[in-house]
Amino acid sequence: MTERIRVGVLGASGYTGADLVRLALAHPNMDITVLTANAHAGKPMGAVFPHLGHHDLPDLIKVEDADWDAVDAVFCGLPHGTTQEIIGEIATARPEIRVFDMSADFRLRDPAAYAEWYGHEHRVPALQREAVYGLTEHYREALKAARLIACPGCYPTATLLALLPIVGEGQVDPGDIIVDAKSGVSGAGRGLKENTLFSEAGEGLSPYSVARHRHAPEIEQEIGVAAGRDVIVNFTPHLVPMSRGELVTCYLRLAGATADDLRETLIERYADEPFMRVLPKGAMPATQHVRGSNFCTIGVFADRVPGRAIVIAAIDNLVKGSSGQAIQNMNVRFGLAETTGLEQMPLFP
Amino acid sequence: MTERIRVGVLGASGYTGADLVRLALAHPNMDITVLTANAHAGKPMGAVFPHLGHHDLPDLIKVEDADWDAVDAVFCGLPHGTTQEIIGEIATARPEIRVFDMSADFRLRDPAAYAEWYGHEHRVPALQREAVYGLTEHYREALKAARLIACPGCYPTATLLALLPIVGEGQVDPGDIIVDAKSGVSGAGRGLKENTLFSEAGEGLSPYSVARHRHAPEIEQEIGVAAGRDVIVNFTPHLVPMSRGELVTCYLRLAGATADDLRETLIERYADEPFMRVLPKGAMPATQHVRGSNFCTIGVFADRVPGRAIVIAAIDNLVKGSSGQAIQNMNVRFGLAETTGLEQMPLFP
Amino acid sequence: MTERIRVGVLGASGYTGADLVRLALAHPNMDITVLTANAHAGKPMGAVFPHLGHHDLPDLIKVEDADWDAVDAVFCGLPHGTTQEIIGEIATARPEIRVFDMSADFRLRDPAAYAEWYGHEHRVPALQREAVYGLTEHYREALKAARLIACPGCYPTATLLALLPIVGEGQVDPGDIIVDAKSGVSGAGRGLKENTLFSEAGEGLSPYSVARHRHAPEIEQEIGVAAGRDVIVNFTPHLVPMSRGELVTCYLRLAGATADDLRETLIERYADEPFMRVLPKGAMPATQHVRGSNFCTIGVFADRVPGRAIVIAAIDNLVKGSSGQAIQNMNVRFGLAETTGLEQMPLFP
Amino acid sequence: MTERIRVGVLGASGYTGADLVRLALAHPNMDITVLTANAHAGKPMGAVFPHLGHHDLPDLIKVEDADWDAVDAVFCGLPHGTTQEIIGEIATARPEIRVFDMSADFRLRDPAAYAEWYGHEHRVPALQREAVYGLTEHYREALKAARLIACPGCYPTATLLALLPIVGEGQVDPGDIIVDAKSGVSGAGRGLKENTLFSEAGEGLSPYSVARHRHAPEIEQEIGVAAGRDVIVNFTPHLVPMSRGELVTCYLRLAGATADDLRETLIERYADEPFMRVLPKGAMPATQHVRGSNFCTIGVFADRVPGRAIVIAAIDNLVKGSSGQAIQNMNVRFGLAETTGLEQMPLFP
Prior knowledge:
4 copies of one chain form a homotetramer.
Chain A: E1 5-10, H1 15-25, E2 30-36, H2 45-48, E3 60-61, E4 73-76, H3 82-93, E5 98-101, H4 111-118, H5 125-130, E6 132-133, H6 136-143, E7 148-150, H7 154-168, E8 172-183, H8 198-201, E9 206-207, H9 215-227, E10 234-239, E11 246-254, H10 259-269, E12 276-278, E13 296-302, E14 308-315, H11 319-333
Parallel strand pairs in A: 1-2, 1-4, 2-3, 4-5, 5-7, 6-7, 8-10, 12-13
Antiparallel strand pairs in A: 8-11, 9-10, 11-14, 13-14
Helix pairs in contact in A: 1-11, 7-9
C-alpha cells in the first residue's frame, strides 16, 4: 500500500499555493488535509481558484485554526516575517512535522544578512540554523534528515542550478558574475498591484528592483559556498509579458576553461538528475519548453569576447522555481522516488 | 500487468500531434511506436518539438514507412483528403488496428455534405459509413465496438456538449441557434500563415470564416440528430490572442423551459461524466480554468430578452477539443478506465 | 491665430483620462490647464503615467481645488454618482463651461432606468434632461449647441454605429438583436481587481456580466429611438487578453432586406464620415487595425441561416470608445474641423 | 507654403515599411509617390496592410517599375544584398535622390567586416564609403550633407544612444561591455517563420543568435569610434512576447566615475535632444512607455558590485529603432524641424 503523506498548505490563495495543490492532486502519496488562507477563511478552494474547484479539497481556514494533528508535512507560502512566527510555533509544538517553506524566511543563513535585506531581526534564529537549503540537486543528502527545508527562490533556483557546478570546479571567476534575469508576471504574486495589471504589464518589458532585489543575497550565499569565498553578484531582474516562465542569462569570465568545458561539467554533474536538461551546443533554452513542468534547461555558449562565456537557464517559476521543487524535496525527505508526482510534460504551445 | 497499447501518431509535427504525444507519455498504457511527419522524416521529435526532446521516442518517419505491425491504435492528425487515403489503406491492410482520426475526414456522415464543404468527393465512402462520431459523452456505447472513430472538431466538441442534452429534451428551439465561437491561435495549426504570426494575431481580435467555417455542418449534423430534424445553425468563429482555449457562447430560444431547467438538464445528464463541469448559477466559464486539461465547463444564463437563454462552454481546444478526447475515446475502445492518463489539472495561471 | 480651448480633465489617473491627455497633447487647439485625480493630488502626471511624464502638464490636484476660471471645456472621467455631483456644481457655478462626460451618468434619459441600473436616484435630473448623447455621427446637430454631452460607453459606440442606420431604415427586426461583445482589458479600467491581473486575464477568455451589463440599457435606449419603439437587446460581453480593442458581433434578423442592402445602407449613411469605414464584402474587421485610432470599421455578412445577417464592428475602446469620441464632440461643439487632432493612424503591429 | 518631399518606400510590405507609411501619412511635408513590394505588385496597400487601407496611397509596384523622377527621397526596407544593388543603381542614375536605407547594407564601414558577417563581398564599396551612419543624435552634422544615410539597426540605436556619451567621456571601460538585449517579435519581420508564430512566441521567452547576431559588429564599430580603439562587445538578444518594444540592459565597468556621473553626462549630452529622456535616479525605463513613439528612455543605476554600473535604454524598435529615426534623418537632411511628423505620444496602455 502506498504511503500516505497528509499535507497542509499554508497560504493556499496565492499562485504558489495553488500550484502546490495542483501538483499534490496528481501526486499518488499526498493527501491535502489543511488549506489556509486567512483572508478567505470559510470559502471552498474553488471560490478562490475555480480551476481547482471540482476536487475534493478541505475548505480554506485561518492558519490559527489548523489542526496540526492532521498533517505530516506543511508547505508554507506565507509572507516573510509571518512565516517565521508560524513555523516557529509548529516546530515547537509538533517537532515531527516536516516543514517545506516556500517563502524567503529561512534561506539566508546569516541573520545579519536577513536583517539587512528584510528590515527586521530574524525571529527564530535557532530554527534558522537548523534549516536546510532546498536546492534538491545540491543538498539532497542534507535534505533527507531535515526538519525544516528552506526552498530556494525562483531566480536563485535557475541561477544556482546553472552556476554551482562550474563555480565549484573553478572554471569561472566567481567575482565576475552578471545575472540578467527575466520572469513572467506570476512571479509577482496574486496581490493587487498596478504594475501587474494586464494593461500595464502586457505588451511591454521593464527592469525592476535593479541592484536591490532580495534574491541577490541568496544567490551570493550559495555561489560563495561553491567558490569558498564571499562574492558579490550582479543580479538584475526584468518583468516579461507572460504568466509563467523564468530565464536567467549569466555572463561569466572563464578561469582557464572553455565554454565546452563548462557544458561538459554540467552534463556530467547532472547526468543522473531527472529534471535537469543540459542542451547540446547551439540549442537555446526557452521558457515555453518547460512551462508547467519541473524541468530546468541549460544552454552554454562561448562569447565572442575572448575569455568569456554565457550560461542560460530556463525554468517554470511556479514549478521548479517553487512548488514543484518543494514537492521534489518532500519526495526526498519522505524516501519516495524523487520524480513522484512531478512527471508532467511541459505544456506547449 | 497493465495492458500495453502500441500507438502510432500520424502527423506528429502539428500541435494536435504534439499534444497527443504529451498526453501519451503520461498515459500508463500507451507506448508510442510510430511517429510520422513527412516533411521532417529522419529527425528526432525533439528537433521539431524541443519540449518533448528528452523522452524516449521513435524518430519521425514518412507515413509510407510506418510499420503497421507495430501498432494497435493509430491517431491521425493529417490534412483532410490525405487522411482518407491513408486510413483507407490501413483499414484494408490491417483491419484489426483501431483508428482515431482527429482530422475532419470522417465526421460528416453525408458524402454530399462532405463534397460540398471540402471541395472533392469522399474517397472511401464505405469506410465513412462505418465511422463512429467520437463525442465520447454522447456516443460511448457505439465507440466500444468501433474500428474507426472520427473525433469531433474543437468547436463542435464544445458546442455539442453544451447543446445536445437540451436540444434532445426539446427545451430549446433547434431552428434558432446562434453560436458565437472564440478560439486561441493554436487552433489554426502550426502551418506558416501571416495571420497567425505573433505580431499579427497579438493584441487583436477578429472574426474569420464568417458563415463559411467547416465546423458548421458538423454541428448541424449532430444537432439535427438530437432534434430529429434538419437544422441550420449560425456559427461565427473569432481568433483570440491566446495560444490555447476555446469558448462558445450559444444564444438560444427557449421552448417552454427556463434557463434553470436547462442547467438542471445538463447537470443531470452529465452527473457521472468525469470531464464535464456544469457550473452553478452565476459562475462564468473561462478558458484559463481548463487550460491543458480535458475538462469542459458549461454555464447557463437567463437572457434579459424574455424567452431566451445563453449557454456558454469552455474547453482547451487541443485537449478536450482534440487529443485528449481522442485518448478518451481510446480508453473507451480498449476498455480502460475512461480517465486514464487524462487527469491533468488545469494549468493556471 | 488658432483658437485656444482651455481644458480640464477630471479623473486623469484612469486610462480614459490618460488617453484624453495623450490626444489633447497632439491637438492643435487644446491647452490642458486642469488635471484632477483625488488619490494622487500633488503629484506630477508623470508619476502616475510615465509615458506622459515629459510634457508640460499641470500637476494633479483634487477636483475641489480646480480653478474653473481656467477652463472652457471639462472632460469628466470620474466614477458614476460622483460625476453627477461635480458636473451639477460646474453647471450651476459656470454655465458657460462645456462638459464632455465620459462616465455613464448622463447617458440614460429615463431617470427610472438610471435608478434601476445604477442603484440610486439620479442626483441632477434637470441637468440630465439637458444632456445630449454624444454619438457624434448620429447627434451632430444637437451637439453643436449642447452644454453637457454624455459621451456613449465603448460598447454602445461600436454597437450603435453598426446598427442605428439599418434599424432606422427598418431593414432588421429591432426585436431580435443579439450583440456578442468582446473587449480588451483596459475597458475594465485601472482600478485594482484580481480578474484584470496579467496572470488572470492573460492567455484566457471569459464572459462577464452576462445579461446584466450596464451598457445594455444604453444600447436599448438608442436602438429604441431608431426603431420608434421599446426594445430589449441581448448584450453579452467577454474579456479578451489584449489591452485595447473592442469588437461587437451583432446577429440580426432581416426585415425584407439582404445583407448587401445593409452594407449599402451603411456605406451611404457613412459616406462623408471621416472615421467610419464600412468594409467591402468579405473583409473582416479586426481590432488591431484600428488600435490607437478614432476609426470604426464595420463588416456585413450574410448568414447561412436564411433571413439572417451578421454585422461586426471594431473600435479602439479608449479612443473611439471614449476619449477620441469625446474630443470629436468637442471639435463639433467648438466649431473646429471634426478630425482636428484625431488623425492618428492605427498602430499596427 | 510647406515644402513637399516626394517619397518612395522600397519594401513597403514589411513592418518597417508599414510604419514608415504610417508616420509619413501624418507628416506635413511628405508625399508618398512610390510604394514597392515585389511579391505584392499590383495590389493596393490596404490589401497588404488593412490598417492603411483607407488612405490615398499609390498601389504597390515592383521596384524595377519605380519612376525615380517622382521621388526626392527613398526609404529602403529591402533585404540586405538586394539593397546594395538597387541603391547602387539609384545613386548612379539619380544622384540627386536622398536615400535613407533602413537595411543593414551600408552600416558597416569596413568592407571586410561586412563580408564576414553577411557572407558576401559588398557590392558597391565606393558608395559605402560615402554613407553616413544615421544615428541622428550623434551624426547630425554629417547627415545634413549626406546623399546616402545608413540608418542604424534597432539594437544598435538603443545601445549606442545609451553608451556613446559615457564611452566618449572615458567614464566606462569600453573593453568590458555586456549588452543583454530584449526585443518584441515585430523585430523579426513579417516573413513566415515558425518561431514567430503566436503559438510559439507567445507566453515564452528565449535567447537567439547568442554571440553571433549581426548587430554586434555595428555596435562595436561605433563604440570603437567613441573609445578611439577597437572593441569587442558582448551582445545577447532575446525574443520577448510582445509585438513592439526593445530594451537593452548594459553592464558596465566604471572608469573612475560613478553611476551618478554617468547619468549626469547623459543628461547634459541630451539636454537639447527632443527624443531623448534620461530618467531621474531610480526610475525604470519600460518599453510600454515609448510604444509607438520616437522616444528613447535611459535609466542609470549603480550596481551592487563595486566599480560597476548598469545603463538601460528602451525604444520602440519600429519607430526610433527604424522608421521614426529614418524620418528624423530626413528632417535633418531636408532642413525641416527635426521633430516634424514625429511627435506622436506613446500609446499606453
